[in-house]
């Protein structure tokens, strides 16, 4: 089915090219210039700020006056700071916990949503709603729900380490599972029906089909989703700021929060930039490792006959 | 933040899978070339903007000056002041008007800091005096108001000298008082106290005794907005003052980190720890906030019997629980601690807030003219009407017209008679140290560090 969809426009284009008399070899290949707006935007809003942050990480700057070069001081502090160690650990745990929670739920929901049950489309749309809300609104909503005296769960949820941590994982999952469900839904729909038909003939049941066909066929989707989740967890911020402010004490002060605190509460922009640069490096490195480990980069087709 | 970044990565990842089917992937060399070319242009652009920021202030032509103010309920007093001033002869003479920009409270400090380093810096801005404006003074961004005040009878005689001095840096004035006094007061729920036949405590032992009785009656003794941390700080401020006097913190404020090791600080941290373990703040205080109204609600609804808070608690309660504020809200001074050397009349809190002027303003006369309005009777009356006690020298005669004259008089006398008024530690230390101290206090209250660990950690702050 996918094969025909992809071929039709290409064939039509070719036909049209013949009609207008242009050489066939030049059609269907966008010129590199088309990438220019994207490259420019990316440069202005990502590359330049990153370069500036890297520069700032070698300076001492309180936001007023001029940054003063201090060499590797901020980076040395990064290695020595016990709060940094704690933050890094918290970030790793948060990333793993979020990944486990979101992947399991999103995978199951996505595979289910790819089917043809009644009301599936309506339910899928409902599931997607949390992703459309702003993170801030969601965090404020859950903060009210978790209020120890006037909320629906009148426990000291956000005042205990495990409670605050689980709340952050849960709220993050609540928000982002819909997005990953969508990815898995798309992935699951790409799996050729013939595989299931063949499996059914061979007598494979539902679970066997899931573990032997669906899951292996989704492995690249899992990689995509995992990279997004990992990078997302590394930059998880608003929810922590609003729900716990890194507390109780420093129990949920993950790296992005530590960066915010260093920058916008203690006005140590040099150190904040060092943490930011570290985050960029870590996120890029992790993505590359994930892609490499999963064989995602090899670009082998998983589809039969393609 | 996550969603946008996630989506971005998503598109790139998606495109690279599809690249085999669709267009030809661009060569690496092309990308590098295009990338560095655009980076050059972008870099130049960024450089130019950076240079531009050195120039002017937010005023533009100097006809309209911007004033940044902390945007809470009390801001209506400043708005009325601006409106009055803009119509006044003084404004016409100086040739311009003031525009008030209300910045939501929790974002005030970072917003001010970023604005002050940018071309859209305010001409006039609200602050807490002392350490809170030190970085601006060091960066030569403040107008030294000392001579202006000395040379102007309206300003010179307009304010209580102690309050004017409390916002000083190195004996020079950089600010004009513009809000009410903000001493920290021990508030209590009169009906809860009456029901259990209690009197507000005057000694620490009485306080512990009251705690025991309240807990027996299943009432949390104290409301505490622990998730904000600064309400927790108030306990340490008063305890250190009562145990060792104002000199203990003065030493720390003056830069001697060893001052954290003073026996008074150690003892205060131990007393706090005992209170927490004893359940004086209940079991959920670390997730209760003051800013979002959590702690005031716990207090007003009788779930907690007392609340150690700044004088603004009165207007907060008046806004949210007017009946409680009018009939059941009681107030008292912080009790003495046995064996302590601090005077029971000493006060901690914020003497007031100040307006300061950006040195780069294009119309200093207009700015100074506006600040003079804060010494006017009309301005002081507006503060009184809002339930605040002004720091102007004519405040005493206005107290009777306060919505709660009794409370206004208590506050005024408290500040007037105080041998020492210690500025809130976080404001006195400035944002850098203040924030790090908050972290340590948060850990102490959350049970993540012991009193001795707290003291050691504070000694190491810089």
TrEMBL record, chain A:
<feature type="domain" description="ABC transmembrane type-1">
    <location>
        <begin position="88"/>
        <end position="290"/>
    </location>
</feature>
<dbReference type="InterPro" id="IPR051393">
    <property type="entry name" value="ABC_transporter_permease"/>
</dbReference>
<feature type="transmembrane region" description="Helical">
    <location>
        <begin position="32"/>
        <end position="58"/>
    </location>
</feature>
<dbReference type="InterPro" id="IPR035906">
    <property type="entry name" value="MetI-like_sf"/>
</dbReference>
<feature type="transmembrane region" description="Helical">
    <location>
        <begin position="121"/>
        <end position="144"/>
    </location>
</feature>
<dbReference type="InterPro" id="IPR000515">
    <property type="entry name" value="MetI-like"/>
</dbReference>
<feature type="transmembrane region" description="Helical">
    <location>
        <begin position="164"/>
        <end position="184"/>
    </location>
</feature>
<keyword id="KW-1003">Cell membrane</keyword>
<feature type="region of interest" description="Disordered">
    <location>
        <begin position="1"/>
        <end position="25"/>
    </location>
</feature>
<feature type="transmembrane region" description="Helical">
    <location>
        <begin position="88"/>
        <end position="114"/>
    </location>
</feature>
<keyword id="KW-0812">Transmembrane</keyword>
<keyword id="KW-0813">Transport</keyword>
<feature type="transmembrane region" description="Helical">
    <location>
        <begin position="269"/>
        <end position="291"/>
    </location>
</feature>
<keyword id="KW-0472">Membrane</keyword>
<keyword id="KW-1133">Transmembrane helix</keyword>
<dbReference type="Pfam" id="PF00528">
    <property type="entry name" value="BPD_transp_1"/>
</dbReference>
<protein>
    <submittedName>
        <fullName>Sugar ABC transporter permease</fullName>
    </submittedName>
</protein>
<comment type="similarity">
    <text>Belongs to the binding-protein-dependent transport system permease family.</text>
</comment>
UniProtKB/TrEMBL annotation, chain B:
<dbReference type="InterPro" id="IPR006059">
    <property type="entry name" value="SBP"/>
</dbReference>
<feature type="region of interest" description="Disordered">
    <location>
        <begin position="1"/>
        <end position="24"/>
    </location>
</feature>
<protein>
    <submittedName>
        <fullName>Extracellular solute-binding protein</fullName>
    </submittedName>
</protein>
<dbReference type="InterPro" id="IPR050490">
    <property type="entry name" value="Bact_solute-bd_prot1"/>
</dbReference>
<dbReference type="Pfam" id="PF01547">
    <property type="entry name" value="SBP_bac_1"/>
</dbReference>
